[in-house]
Amino acid sequence: MEENQLVVINDDGTEIVMEILFTFDNEEYDKKYVLYVDPNDESGQVFVSSYTEEGELFNIEDEQEWEMIEEVFQAFVLKHEEETH
Length: 85
Known about the structure:
5 strands; 26% helix; 38% strand; alpha+beta; 85 residues; globular
């Protein structure tokens, strides 16, 4: 498996290979986060999970945590746009 990929298992047991956009750590929440996309989905939907060193993924349910993640994602998008122009 390539380093920039992860496998997500849906509720029905289907495995989907996802492409990792980036990961980051946050000391305030003491968590690691991964942002990823389904390369076969043309909608461009970005998924976010917190994760453990063992590779377990967890949903984000806290509104303030979502706000922090959105800020980090926006900074990522801006940086990426600057690098490509």
